[in-house]
Amino acid sequence: MRSPLASSIGLMQGELECRNHTSGWRTRIPSWLHMWPIGASGVFYRCTTYDDDLGKTPYSVDGVRLAGLRWIHRKGETLRLVNSQTPTNSTVRFLRGSGMFDDQAIQLRYTVRLAASGMRRLKESRVRGKPFAYRHEHRYRRVSGSQEAKTPAVSR
Q1: pTM
Q2: What angle do CA 52, 57, 58 make, to 5 degrees?
Q3: Per-residue pLDDT reduced to its tens digit, 98-143
Q4: CB of 26 closer than 8 Å to CB of 50
């Protein structure tokens, strides 16, 4: 079975839009995403490179795996799939989970749109009992000439 993450394999260019938690201002940071499968394990590595315009090039590498209704990040965050939609030419996944921010337990909500042309990943959070608030969103488009790699069948 082909993983829903397979459409995200390859190199994409876009941006990270993030909200300053104190002021509420949003900042856009140009970034690049390279995603690839690790054999037939069902794990996909994501390497995100950011252009902070200060002469530095920060990056992050993490792994993600779909296991049934769970979306597991290598960094220890596990999210549960609560809904999935398949509009034309894409898949939208709605995920919920929990985590920590500033030593405080928070609830997480992700909306992930996967398509051959690119991907979007919106992250929202809240303290229990409060409304969800925007944290950040990654928006990417496939780089011209970067084609989806052929991937072996993996479990969801």
Answers
A1: 0.81
A2: 90
A3: 888 888 889 999 999 988 889 999 999 999 899 999 999 999 999 8
A4: no
